[in-house]
Amino acid sequence: MRYSRIIGTGSYLPEKIVTNDDLSKTLDTDDEWIQSRTGIRQRHIAAPEQETSDLALMASQRALASAGLAADDIDLIVVATTTPDMLFPSTACILQDKLGIHNGSAAFDVQAVCSGFIFALATADRMVASGMAKNALVVGAEVMSRILDWNHRNTCVLFGDGAGALVLQASETPGILSAHLHSEGQHRHILNAPGQIRDGRIHGSPYIHMDGGAVFRFAVRVLAESTLEALAHNGLQPADIDWLVPHQANARIMDATAKKLGVPPEKVIHTVSGQANTSAASIPLAIDYGARHGCFKPGQLLALAAVGAGFSWGASLVRWG
Ligand code: ACO
């Protein structure tokens, strides 16, 4: 087998919905400001007892059902998350146990913030294609609500909680065509949660800090650049894209990226309005949305592109079906 391909998708959004109007009751903000700047109408927020691994579990069970596999068929779990259940062990190991998988196969986390799912997918794809695993569960799961300062309107309105999962299987035909990953750590100051654990305490802020304008400019540039890099690598053009599935940070970033690429709005999967930015979960949530709404047809080309703190970014091309 030289490739991997997606054989199942699933997602989960917590029950509790917080609308922009709900936020405006405790914050100096309003629906018009948030929608016009970001396209976000509402976000889902995990219940206090729900951990990242619980969201991941629901998404994974749905992905397994859609793939027609049992949990024990999975021999690799890669979870992308910025908000792990605990410092260690990995959320992937906790998920493996919650799924009832006790076959000794590998499970580990990948941390690349909002681009984490692209990094996790690339890792799992190469492990499956090389024969290290046969059926991989690739998950993006986040409880971003836990690292937001809910008194800080510049950041807290932007994020939400959720999880998405894909099942990858070894295949003679592609599947995942290629992945192109990048990081530039010198830009780590424009978006971070800088708190450090030392002497049993958190030193510095545990909340998200962001220079919104700098993030916006960086995101639009690299989402388009990495998508073009992936297309060129495969001898393809922007016109060959059937569906652009960008990280769902903000509608204006997605619109500007699609415009730069010349991809018409009707070919862009758009879930940010109902989910806000779910960081590493946003791309698998968007893929599951597209799959369940019958958007993707066999043979169609999906372009996935994500960017996040680090800065880290990347793109991957997928042949559907
Ligand atoms: N409600 C009302 N007013 C607000 C809010 C809010 N929620 N947030 C900020 N403001 C105010 C600011 O305080 C500022 O007021 P001031 O001029 O009195 O200081 C004013 O609105 C304008 O602020 P700007 O930052 O200039 O607004 P801008 O039009 O740039 O939009 C935004 C801000 C939405 C954050 C934009 O910069 C953006 O989308 N950046 C990208 C950030 C992003 O998507 N981050 C997600 C994480 S990164 C990732 O996933 C890639």
Model description:
- This protein is of the alpha+beta class.
- The chain is 32% helix and 27% strand.
- The chain has 10 helices and 15 strands.
- The strands form 5 sheets. The protein has a 5-stranded mixed β-sheet with strand order 1-7-6-4-5, with helices on both faces. Strands 8-15-14-13 form a 4-stranded mixed β-sheet, with helices on both faces. Strands 2-3 form a two-stranded antiparallel ribbon.
- Strand 14 and strand 15 (312-319) form a beta hairpin.
- Helix 3 packs across helix 4 (91-98) and helix 7 (212-233) packs parallel to helix 8 (251-261).
- The chain starts with a strand and ends with a strand.
- The model has no long low-confidence stretch (mean pLDDT 97).
Number of strands: 15
Q: What does the average pLDDT come to?
A: 97
Number of helices, where a helix is a run of at least 4 consecutive DSSP H or I residues: 10
**What is the strand content?**
25-35%
Unreliable residue stretches? none
Distance between the termini: 17 Å
Question: Which value, in Å, is the CA radius of gyration?
Answer: 18 Å
Q: Portion of residues in helices?
A: 25-40%
> What is the structural class?
alpha+beta
Order of helices and strands: EEHHEHEHEHEHEEEEEEHEHHHEE
Reported for the largest beta sheet, the result is: 5 strands, mixed
Shape category: globular
The molecules bound to the chains, other than polymers, are:
acetyl coenzyme *A
How would you write the strand order of the largest sheet? 1-7-6-4-5
Short description:
This protein is of the alpha+beta class.
